[in-house]
Amino acid sequence: MKKLITLSILALLAVGCTTQPKFDPAVTETVVIDGKTFNIPKGATPSPHLATKKEIEFYKKSGVSNCKQGDVIWDAEDSKAQIAKAIESGNPEIHKELAQKGLIGCASPVK
What we know:
41% helix, alpha+beta, 22% strand
C-alpha cells in the first residue's frame, strides 16, 4: 500500500512539473521601452529598442502585418532557440513559420 501511494505521488509530481501552459499572445503584460508603455504577450521577450524601418519591413515580409514606426518587436520565449536552430540548418522560412503560429509580432504603444 505504501508503494502504491508513493508511486501515485511521484506520478502526480512528474505530471505537474512537466506540463507548462501554452503560449497565448492574448494574455499580455506591460513593459516600458524607450519611455513608452507596451502590452506584449506574457512570456514574450521584447526588443530592447523601438523597431527600425528595416526590421518592420522584414517582419511584414514574414507575415506580421501590424508592424509600424514606433512599435516594439517581440518573440515568444522559445522562438529565439527555434530561430537559431533554423539559421544553423539553413531554414530561411523560420520567421514566416513563427509568424503563422503567432510566436513573433509587434506591439504599439499604449495610449
